[in-house]
Amino acid sequence: MIDAGTEVELAVGPVGHGGFCVARHEGRVVFVRHALPGERVRAVVTEDRGGSYCRADAVAVLGGAPGRVAPPCPASGPGGCGGCDFQHVDPAVQRGLKAQVVAEQLRRIAGLDVAVTVDELPGGPLGWRTRTRLAVDAGGQAGFRAHRSHLVVPVPACPLAAPGSLEAVLTRRWRPGAELEVVADDCGQVHVAQLRPGRLPTEVRGSGRIVRHAAGRRWELSARSFWQVHPAAADALAGLVGEWAAAPRGGTAWDLYGGVGLFASVLAGQVGLAGSVTVVDTSRRATADGAAALADLAQVSFVTNRVERALAELPGQPDVVVLDPPRRGAGRPVAAAVTARRPARIVHLACDPAALARDIAAYLEGGYRLLALRALDAFPMTHHVECVAALAR
Question: Which domains does the chain have, with CATH numbers?
Fold first, then answer.
């Protein structure tokens, strides 16, 4: 084991899944952040629990690689805010690194050799985060947690946050130990809730009801209901789902982990009044918001339940199933239950490349093949990437 704080010199290898690059030191793997493939860096070990690898931060670049840029935020970097992984990387190079990660996970886990390109979304790499979670330190100052730590790093501003959303939050004092959720909606309103364990959120600013516009509709929702964080992501994803689902007129579609029914609204237009779209989600808040927002679509119904349980109760054979599971993925039991119903088409969304690859592997085992895959840079400056996959029986 290497003591935390020890400096080592590293030749940096390929990008890994998780916002780091892979290097080696004395026969062991080092996951090093704030570096680029091909660089030579001096790094400080931040964590070593034994085993085959340890973690480190690059603190000095001895030989830089093309694509390295000055971070736009002074709180980024070793020991700073843990929210961004790639601020030191040119945005086009970031997308290339994410594409490598997605392709590598598909190859390693699902056995697929897929050429991946990560597409840029409109709006640029900054000012896109419409939902921001902050922590409050012992002095009442709001900030962000350091990487793999509970330490709160106070910041004067965040260049990723939607313009105008954080200024009033970062300049006042809060209850020490609290967490804050700040949501900027599509009408320019900012909603702030103070979160405390075991208690309902306290609305500090705004009504707690937000407005979004996507898929040709106006959505009035709880600020707590899930919605894509990037302002261009909801429309982009809804367009892809509609293109690849191609639900038949009069057909049956399931929207699993469907939240407020963004994709269901698109599917409803495809199946028409003679068809049906069933949305399943565990959140009562989301399904209630969705039912109200889509009250004009009689062919859409909402089920509040765990997807695993709902699949055992949903009748018939769907023509298409759309899944947008949480970061951990749908999992093998859900994938097996879906493929057992033999839909003509599966459209699967994922924000974690490894979870995506695991779920696709399960669909392949169930007799499906990958038709197409798109990756969107819905989280610039971070290692996260949104992917959409289409599969057919």
Answer: 7-68 (2.40.50.140), 97-123+228-392 (3.40.50.150), 131-222 (no CATH)
